[in-house]
């Protein structure tokens, strides 16, 4: 790592580096952020669990659901930050992924179709109020006629507008970028199995200079060839996210979810819809695993892999005063976390 990204303690061979920042966490180790049973202490517990993975800042991700359940999740996250220091210092904001996404099979992913809808600023404003102003990122599809105006309103209010779960035409992608969208959410996933070879929403997002991209480099969401292309085209603007779920860190097996139905977690960590191995249901692996996948496959340098999971997302999300650190050891399999320092204290 460079002096900017981390320092080496020559006496111990440990590297001191910025903590990881995960912009997309749906849950972790049995805790589902979108569950009706979510409690404030669950957010405290996720915060603490993620510290052991080197993640010192994360964005709880609320996905497509009923109005009542979205409000419940938002209020619970906000309450957790008022009750628990662990949550307050670890949660950088809320990522609202849906329900303003594509209704089409494929782009919709595992999001329930019953609650997908066109962007509504009035509805979003009520959700923002319920969250105590904590919604910092909104993922939506530009294919809705209401999308450009909604994006402009997001930008004006200081909320990051992200393109994702979309079946938008190229011109709609361009219109969204012109309106102020600055991120592509897990680019290359939540898409059709077949696309036009020249004119499609993936090429259009790659070609947009103003767009950062987030990717899930867990060996399942994207093939190595696509990762190589993404990393080259979006050098300096690639963000690693985990898209972790309640099944991340759990034993392989079949599970039932209140959103999306039956899922399978394989021994290798792949999480997919039951009977549909090609339809992923989020991730069963951590952000640290995504960083180490790039290192292990030699798709980028260890320093750059760590930077895409730490410095780049923190800068993008405006977390400029984040001083959390981790002490790392670099092995043949990637980085191992030896110590996490949160708010100046070893945790």
What is the assigned CATH homologous superfamily?
Metal-dependent hydrolases
The number of strands is 19
Biggest sheet character:
8 strands, parallel
Order of helices and strands: EEEEEHEHHEHEHEHEHEHEEEEEHHHEEE
Count the helices. How many? 11
List keywords for this structure.
31% helix, TIM Barrel, eight-stranded parallel beta sheet, five-stranded antiparallel beta sheet, alpha/beta, 347 residues
Report on the architecture of this protein.
The protein has helices at residues 40-51, 67-83, 85-90, 121-130, 147-157, 170-179, 201-207, 224-233, 287-296, 302-309, 311-316; strands at 7-9, 14-18, 20-25, 27-28, 31-32, 55-63, 94-97, 135-140, 160-163, 183-184, 212-215, 238-240, 253-257, 261-265, 271-273, 276-280, 325-331, 334-342, 345-346. The chain has one domain (18-346): Metal-dependent hydrolases (TIM Barrel, Alpha-Beta Barrel), CATH 3.20.20.140. By secondary structure, it is α/β, with parallel strands linked by helices. The model has no long low-confidence stretch (mean pLDDT 93). The strands form 4 sheets. The chain has an 8-stranded parallel beta sheet with strand order 3-6-7-8-9-10-11-12. Strands 1-2-17-18-19 form a 5-stranded antiparallel beta sheet, covered by helices on one side. It is built from 11 helices and 19 strands. The protein is globular. Strand 10 (183-184), helix 7 and strand 11 (212-215) form a beta-alpha-beta unit.
Furnish the topology, listing elements before pairings.
Elements: E1 7-9, E2 14-18, E3 20-25, E4 27-28, E5 31-32, H1 40-51, E6 55-63, H2 67-83, H3 85-90, E7 94-97, H4 121-130, E8 135-140, H5 147-157, E9 160-163, H6 170-179, E10 183-184, H7 201-207, E11 212-215, H8 224-233, E12 238-240, E13 253-257, E14 261-265, E15 271-273, E16 276-280, H9 287-296, H10 302-309, H11 311-316, E17 325-331, E18 334-342, E19 345-346
Parallel strand pairs: 3-6, 6-7, 7-8, 8-9, 9-10, 10-11, 11-12
Antiparallel strand pairs: 1-2, 2-17, 4-5, 13-14, 14-15, 15-16, 17-18, 18-19
């Amino acid at each position: 790592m460079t002096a900017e990204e981390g320092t080496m303690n020559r006496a111990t061979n440990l590297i001191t580096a910025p903590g990881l920042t995960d912009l997309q966490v749906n849950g972790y180790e049995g805790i589902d952020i979108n569950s009706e049973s979510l409690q404030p202490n669950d957010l405290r517990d996720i915060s603490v669990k993620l510290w052991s993975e080197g993640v010192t800042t994360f964005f709880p991700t609320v996905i497509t659901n009923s109005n009542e359940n979205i409000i419940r999740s938002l209020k619970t996250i906000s309450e957790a930050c008022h009750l628990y220091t662990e949550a307050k210092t670890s949660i950088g904001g809320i990522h609202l992924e849906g329900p303003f996404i594509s209704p089409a099979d494929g782009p919709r992913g595992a999001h329930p179709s019953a609650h997908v809808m066109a962007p509504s600023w009035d509805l979003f404003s009520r959700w923002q109020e319920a969250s105590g102003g904590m919604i910092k990122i909104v993922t939506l599809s530009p294919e809705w006629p209401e999308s450009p105006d909604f994006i402009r309103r997001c930008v004006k209010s200081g909320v990051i507008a992200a393109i994702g779960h979309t079946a938008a035409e190229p011109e709609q992608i361009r219109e969204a970028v012109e309106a102020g969208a600055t991120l592509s959410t897990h680019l290359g996933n939540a898409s059709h199995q077949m696309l036009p070879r020249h004119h499609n929403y993936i090429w259009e997002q790659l070609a947009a200079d103003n767009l950062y991209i987030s990717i899930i480099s867990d060996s399942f969401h994207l093939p190595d060839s696509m990762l190589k292309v993404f990393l080259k085209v979006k050098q300096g603007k690639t963000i690693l996210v985990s898209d972790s779920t309640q099944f991340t860190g759990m034993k392989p097996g079949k599970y039932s979810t209140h959103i999306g139905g039956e899922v399978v977690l394989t021994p290798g960590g792949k999480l997919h819809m039951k009977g549909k191995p090609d339809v992923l249901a989020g991730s069963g692996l951590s952000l640290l695993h995504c960083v180490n996948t790039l290192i292990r496959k030699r798709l980028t340098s260890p320093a750059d892999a760590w930077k895409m999971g730490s410095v780049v997302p923190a800068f993008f999300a405006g977390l400029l005063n984040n001083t959390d650190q981790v002490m790392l050891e670099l092995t043949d399999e990637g980085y191992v976390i030896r110590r996490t320092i949160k708010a100046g204290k070893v945790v």
